[in-house]
């Protein structure tokens, strides 16, 4: 987000909109897919790898610096995300869940880093690919451990209901497990990052316009208000960014557990 102001005339301000999420190729005449979000995603991967390398490459008995940060993140994911869902299988899946949590968190935090200012998850393709990857793992585990029939039987287990009720409830449960769960996994993350980025852009553009582009005695207070609201929303957005990373990883753990245990 290099600028959030659209100027159609010297006296007119236009609120930022969908153009904030449209990017031209970084290299003129180069690959159309190589845009700013792709570059930021690559940078995010490098950051995640670098943080884990600095934290765990040469661990000490008494953790310090990056190791302390890495162990705190590991313990948080293990105790708050993996263990409540996976139980005895926690350690086996910690690598994947820690990677998902750190990746999504860094993606989100890119929205508040100066000169970058774009949360990757606000581009729907990125959380969708991550959610599809988890979905494939879930289905694979369910079929591998329980077989197709066993997995489906565990998913639509409706004890105590009469036979005729299966025809009503079974399709709904199957749709929730194999369709709705996939979309809600990434839509929640995408929608929050999209809306948050748009709100920050809106109020920052108000502040910039009335304090710099069209400074006046009457407009200055509105500009100051825009800046103040931008600061408040940015602080709240950082909390939401962490929360959404937590929820995305939590759902990933739940879906993996459902595949392992063959249950809804």
From TrEMBL:
The chain crosses the membrane at residues 38-57, 93-116, 122-143, 189-211, 218-236, 242-260. Keywords: ATP synthesis, Cell membrane, CF(0), Hydrogen ion transport, Ion transport, Membrane, Transmembrane, Transmembrane helix, Transport. Its main location: membrane. It is a multi-pass membrane protein. The keyword Phosphoprotein does not apply. InterPro entries: ATP_synth_F0_asu, ATP_synth_F0_asu_bact/mt, F0_ATP_A_sf. GO terms for cellular component: plasma membrane; proton-transporting ATP synthase complex. CDD domains: ATP-synt_Fo_a_6. Pfam families: ATP-synt_A (PF00119). The keyword Transmembrane helix applies. One of its GO terms (molecular function) is proton-transporting ATP synthase activity, rotational mechanism. It is found in: Cell membrane; Membrane. Belongs to the ATPase A chain family. NCBIfam families: ATP_synt_6_or_A. Key component of the proton channel; it plays a direct role in the translocation of protons across the membrane. This is ATP synthase subunit a. It comes from [Actinomadura] parvosata subsp. kistnae. The gene is atpB.
